Amino acid sequence: MTAGPVDLRALPKVELHRHLEGAIRLATVFDLSRQAGLDLQADTPETFAPFALIREPVANLEEALSRFAFAQGCIRTYEGVRRIAAEAVDDLGAENVRLAELRFSPEFMCEPAGLDWDGAMESVVDGAHHASGEHDV
After folding, report:
1. Pick from 57, 64, 79, 104: CA 20 to 30 A from residue 119's CA?
2. Does 50 reside within a domain?
3. Which of 93, 92, 106, 99 is closest to 21 using CA atoms?
4. What's the rounded mean pLDDT across residues 13-36?
5. Gap between the Cα atoms of 47 and 43, Å rounded
């Protein structure tokens, strides 16, 4: 007798290398950018997607990094940092990840708004800790 297919989504997982800045939800980038008064040349997350997401190969590194500039530019407050950290852990929980290494670059995250690195670190820890209490991550 052979076993049926295994549902990999149902298995507990370990995520060894997830970049916080690359894991921000599109709707969150859109929302935080709007709150910061940034011009996105789009009216909805869906119309913003072609500018911010990479869904097919791009010509070069510069083009890829230009998409990350939207994520970097939207991070303007410690509350925004808390939000993206909490949502990242929420998303890990939804993927049935039980242990994760969530990494980020303080310079990348803090530079646009002049946020203090220690304050950003506290906000990441606070957001991740709060969400991990709601999920088994």
Report:
1. 64
2. yes
3. 106
4. 95
5. 7
Say what percent of the chain tops pLDDT 70. 99
Classify residue 68: in a domain, yes or no. Answer: yes
Nearest to 106 by CA among 91, 116, 98: 116
Check the CA dihedral 56-61-63-68 and report its sign: positive
Q: Helices (DSSP H) in 36-116: which residue ranges?
A: 45-52, 61-74, 78-94, 106-110
Question: pTM, whole model, 2 decimals?
Answer: 0.89
What value does the mean pLDDT take over residues 6-11? Answer: 88
- The two tokens of residue 30 are 């859109």
Q: How confident is the model at residue 65 (pLDDT cuts 50, 70, 90)?
A: confident
